[in-house]
Amino acid sequence: MAKEIIHTDQAPAAVGAYSQAVKTGNTVYLSGQIAIDPETQEIIEGGVEKQAKRVLENLKAVLAAADCTFKDVVKSEIFLDNINDFSAVNDIYAEYFQEEPPARACVEVGSLPKGVAVEISLVAVK
After folding, report:
1. What angle do CA 91, 97, 101 make, to 5 degrees?
2. CB within 8 Å of 44: residues ≥ 6 apart
3. Which domains does the chain have, with CATH numbers?
4. What is d(CA 115, CA 96) in angstroms, rounded to the nearest whole number?
5. 68 among known catalytic residues
6. Mind giving me the DSSP string for 15-35?
7. Nearest to 20 by CA among 67, 66, 72
8. Measured distance CA(48)–CA(56) in Å, rounded
9. What whole-number distance in Å separates Cα of residue 16 and Cα of residue 8?
10. Residue 15: exposed, middle, or buried by beta-carbon count in 10 A (0-12, 13-18, 19+)?
11. Are 118 and 35 within 8 A, CB to CB?
């Protein structure tokens, strides 16, 4: 089965050797997004809530480039640099997944790229 690389200028450019998303068949695998402003390529400051919102907006842009929405998401993975931020991130996350939320994992990790507080990756099926 062929794969299609998904890219949009509405989300941050990759900071490594990866694609924003890859589509194969009717499944789209979105790479983890961090709180980078796509216009400035700078990290969003102001706490985990602002970072979580920016991450989800970045993911929304990549989903749109793949002709998907949050309703198409079947799996998400949330990586936190501090598990005590779970509740704050969950509140922001819930705004984007109001109906039939996907399966999800959330873990605390030692550190995240560029010192951010949160990273989220998704899998969508269209």
Report:
1. 110
2. 35, 36, 37, 50, 51, 54
3. 3-125 (3.30.1330.40)
4. 24
5. no
6. SSS--SEEEETTEEEEEEE-S
7. 66
8. 12
9. 16
10. exposed
11. yes
Catalytic residue among 22, 64, 106, 112: 106
The residues, any chain, with a CB within 8 Å of residue 81's CB and separated by 6 or more, are 108, 109, 110, 111, 112, 116, 117, 118
Compute the distance between CA of residue 62 and CA of residue 105 in angstroms, rounded to an integer: 20
What tokens appear for 83 in the block?
């598990």
Mean pLDDT by 10 residues, the chain (126 residues): 94 91 98 96 94 98 98 98 98 96 97 96 97
Task: Give me the pLDDT at residue 74, please.
Answer: 98
Q: Could you count the other beta carbons within 10 Å of the beta carbon of residue 49?
A: 15
3-state secondary structure 43-100: ECCCCHHHHHHHHHHHHHHHHHHCCCCHHHEEEEEEEECCHHHHHHHHHHHHHHCCCC
pTM of structure:
0.96
Give the pLDDT of residue 90: 98
The packing angle between helices 86-96 and 48-65, to 10°, is 30
